[in-house]
Amino acid sequence: MPYAENPFLSRGLASTTLHPLGLEVDRAEGPWLILKNGTRLFDAISGIGVSNFGHGHPGIQAELQRQLDRHLHAMVYGEFLQEAQTRASALLRASLPESLDGVYFLNSGAEAIDAALKLAKRVTGRRRLFAVTGGYHGNTHGALSVSSNELRKAPFRPLLPEVEFVTWNDLADLKRVDETVACVVAETVQGDAGIRIPDRAWLQALRDRCTKSGVLLVLDEIQCGMGRTGKPWAFEHFGVTPDVLCMGKALGGGMPIGALAASTDLLGQFAHHPSLGHITTFGGHPMACAGAVGALTALHELDFSELERHCSVWHKALEEHPAVERVRRIGAFFAVELESAEAVQKAVDVGLASQDELGVLLFWFLSVPNAFRLAPPLVATEQEMAQGLALILSALDDITDLPRQ
Q1: φ and ψ at 313, to 5 degrees?
Q2: What class is the 3-57+303-400 domain?
């Protein structure tokens, strides 16, 4: 696409690719994105995991309006006590193990990863950082350093030094985690790698190895947290507790936010030697924290058995479709593999080519070109989920040219 025709660059906006979707959103409600041309798109990816509770959730909207009527930014994080922050912290800590009794609110998931790397170096005095093959943690220099996709890292090297990778799901490779390592950073369930779900034994062995070597286990649940996997937090599936939990995306209920949860003993070390060990102007912004209050309240109210019932229907129907090679799923977190990257591109395009002013938004993985992601709103009704599934299956029908029975 020539620069002059790029819908972002032509309006003086930065563009993340040369081929953006370029759809113009007018409003959004529940699982639906309503475009300016009147098309209603079923948001089958929840804004890449941000809108877990749908668009315009009344509880989240009410918290945002309440805070908007009170005040916006008052002071950089860590100087003033603000009710939105303390309420969000209380709700978040109530959903976590007792050992994670402190929260640092930040601007994004990537900033949470960067802060976690700094915290690990600060509390251990070590400099070696370990991550896991296949992991994706964001696009800051720090987050890229512990992410796995070399194609996306190469143009920006040098990145952080002394970063190494252990092999995902390989028990033998964990012996490399020793007393010289500050932390191991791992997605509890890998998102960009195509919803890769680890063996319970491997994740527990990683936890044990970190404990024995005095290494901080940092779990990234920026994508897979906040109910996405069918439990409030993905680590609950595996019988482990991290030393540090990184969050973002859905935590803000649609507002930009990140967070770091750890023990207060660990987080307290950011405050001295040096002071302001991590500092952020807009971290803990009262509107973002108000969104988190609404989102965490919605998380507490989720019926996970009902969610699993809805998603198992999707899983079965997708597995049975002739265009689908494989489905990986945990909770409402899906990867749908097709024959090729070209088939995925066609499915996305067909989904957006609305029929009767209805369509569906599917999306790619960065590192798995022959699969597309699904992450439907966790609060969608049975009727909405049925409608969304019908739109997805219709898109798949078109790429196979096979009529549905």
Answers
A1: -65, -45
A2: alpha beta
